[in-house]
Every structure is written in C-alpha cells, then in structure tokens.
Amino acid sequence: MQKFIFIFTIVLFIQFHSYAQGCVAVRQMGGLSMCSSDAYNISKGDWQVGANYRYFHSWRHYIGTDEQPHRQNTGGGIGMDGIDRGNAVNIYSHSLDLNLSYGLTSRWQLNLTLPYVNNERSQVLRQTAPVKDTFRYSVFAKGLGDIRVGANYWVMDPAKAHKGNLMLGLGVKLNNGNHNVLDAAPQANGTIRMAVMDQAIQPGDGGIGFSLEAQGFRHLFKTVYGFVYGYYLFNPRESNGSFKSAPAAGLQGYNLYASPDQYLARAGFMSTVDKAQKLTLSLAARGEGIPAYDALGGQVAFRRPGYVIAIESGISYRSGQHGISLYIPFNVVRNRIQSAADIASQQLQNKGVTDPAKMVHVQGDAAFADYSISLGYTYRIVKKGTALQHFNPKM
Predict the structure, then answer these.
(1) N or C: which terminus of the chain carries fewer CB neighbours within 10 A?
(2) Closest by alpha carbon to 85, among 134, 138, 137, 139?
(3) Residues 165 and 214 sit within 8 Å (Cβ to Cβ)
(4) 260-278 in b/e burial notation, b at 16+ Cβ within 10 A?
(5) For the domain that residue 223 is a member of, what is the CATH number?
(6) Which residues pair with 99 in a beta bridge?
C-alpha cells in the first residue's frame, strides 16, 4: 500500500458535501470523509472527525443553457436615483458540515453528518407606496439542515487491495431541517409581512430520503491515481407542504414546494507533488443537479430542476492525523431544464391548438454561480494504546 493513498482519499471523499450553486436547490450530499492519516480505510474501532465549509454566490440567470444577461440591469424598474436595478436574484450561501465516521470493521464504516446553513436571497422590489421607488432588499434563512446517516462498505479487503478499491454506500436523509423558514419581506404598498422563504435558501427540503452511492479509485502510473464517484438521493415525498404562491388556473398543486431527488457524479485524477508525499493536487470533472421528475413518488409540486457541469481543481495536505483540503469547481455548463410545472403549463396552454406556429414553450429560469469554494479539515482518532498505522511506498 502506498503512503499517499491517504491523500487520494481526502481528495475523493471530503468534497462530496456539496450542492449546485444557486436557485437549483441541491443541498449537502453524502459521501462522508473516511480517510485516515496513512490508510484509505478506517480501522476497526477508530474514529474520524471533520468539518467542511462551502460558499457560493449565484447571480447569472439561465433558461436552459442560454444566459439572460439583461437580468443584471433591466427589468427591475427605475429607482428614485434614475438607475434601473435589474431583476436578477442573488443568493449568497454559507454551509458547514460536521462529520463523524466510525470503523465498525476494516471494511465497514458508519457515518453521520450535521449540516448548518446560513443563506441570503437578494431581490428587487417595485414599491408603489408611500413613494414610488425600486430598490433591492435581502431575506435570510439559516439553521440546522437535514441530518444524514449512512454506512459504507469496501468491496475488496483494504489490507490486500493495494492498487485500487470500490466502496458502496447506503444512507438516510432525515427531514429535521426547517423547510418553512419565514422572514420579514417588504411589500409593494410599503408594508412588511412575514413570508415563506424560497426553497433555494431553506435549510431542509421536508422529505425523508435514502441515498445510494459508489466510489472507487485505481492506481494508473507512478504517483497518479484515477477516481470516480456517483451519488443519487431518492426523495419520495411529493411536496413538503410549504406554500409558494397562489395556484395558476388548472395547475393546482404546483404552488407547493417539492422535496426533490438530487444527484452528483465526479471523476478525475490526482497525484502527490512532493517527496514527503504530503501535498496532493487534483483535477476532476463533476456534474450535479436535480431532475425534473423524481424516480419515486408523486411529481405535482414546484421545483427548479437543472444541473451544472464543472471543472474542479483541488489541493490537499496531510500531516500525521490531520488533513486539510481546498477545492474550487468552476462551472462550464449551466442548464435550467423544464420542470414538471413548466411542462404541465405548456400542455395546458397548447391544449386544442392545432397550428404548430401558435404553440407556446414554457420554461422557467434559475440563477447559477460561476464557482464555489470548499474548505475541509479531518482528524483521525485511533484506539487508545495503538499507533496510527503507516505504510511504506513500494515504488
């Protein structure tokens, strides 16, 4: 077993507490950090603790893959100072995952994640009274997110699988996070009322879900490893019951927020770059998002489905039982796909229309970020009276 496999494991696992950047409200995912200081599995009776902080700012609006740049400076209305505010929605998101893993055996690990979020949504209001004006204001939602528990299993014995391995995982996402946060929102008539915040900034999604994941790595040549990861969260609940808006005619049910499925895929390469094999660089392609329809359960509820594809660069460093990592995915594709509500509205409006030229296409928009920042730390706790196992490179 080569010593730097540990570094690979940091790169592979610690980044997976992620969600798509913006109005496509994919929340923190599974794939907990399970690396030790010099082994890629957690030994029986050992613990792993860690934290992962993530930040993004979404502001670019897309319909499908077409950006709507005019949203930045038109459509919001002219303020008293004569400036058009634009009507782009901006979201600033801060999240912190506290992670705990336990080695049930050398191949089985139990995992727990406690997520906390602090989100801001900035938008424009056209005020009609007591004075006519247009201005931007912010609302907030923060608190404990949906707790995740799970178990992972190495298919091959880590003591013998020196060149690569495959891990399978099963998890449960609870619905303890608040999905009905209220905040004071100014109104066009000059008053302020408490309103349900948009689903993009709510700490929870209101559904009990279960997740499947698979992750693996393989030594390629010299100090280079390849890795892959796949994750899917099944959220069978149709709607969490939170009120979005009054239903449009013929679209009853789509005025309530959905508890949507979500997914993530990631693949790339990593390599140590120093003689001590403590510093590692990585490069990966990743895609994440939420589908228009859930794999299980009902579909009549509101969501903003879509996905991003990103190129992610990463750097990690380990010393003894400590590990720290930084990852920055840059989005190269943003796609706000048609939602179930869009398709239902389109079918309703085109009902009875025989002329193709008069048929309408309905597709909402969503805001996305350019990039996100993820900073993680892990610490391995070994059993009392035992030393942390070290492996000597065999190269």
Answers:
(1) C
(2) 134
(3) no
(4) bbbbbbbebebbbeeeebb
(5) 2.40.128.130
(6) 50, 113
**Within a domain: 156:** yes
Phi-psi region of 85 (alpha: psi -120 to 50; beta: other; left: phi over 0): alpha
Classify strands 366-381 and 322-335 as parallel, antiparallel or unpaired: antiparallel
Cα 374 to its chain centre, rounded Å, is 11
Would strands 164-173 and 133-144 be described as parallel, antiparallel, or unpaired? unpaired
Residue spans of beta strands (DSSP E) within 148-299? 148-154, 164-173, 182-186, 192-196, 209-221, 224-234, 239-243, 256-258, 262-272, 279-290
Is residue 357 situated within a structural domain? yes
Q: Which domain holds residue 352?
A: 5-61+90-123+136-381
Give residue-wise pLDDT tens across range 310-343: 999 999 999 989 999 999 999 999 999 999 999 9
Tally the domains of the chain: 1
Rounded to whole angstroms, the maximal C-alpha distance in the chain is 80
Retrieve residue 278's tokens. 């403590």
Helix, strand or coil, per DSSP, at residue 142 = strand
**Residue 292 placed within a domain:** yes
Alpha-carbon gap, residue 206 to 187, rounded angstroms: 27
Where residue 76 falls among pLDDT bands split at 50, 70, 90? Answer: confident
Provide DSSP, 292-318. Answer: SS-SSS---SB---EEEEEEEEEEEEE
Contact 44, 106 (CB under 8 A): yes
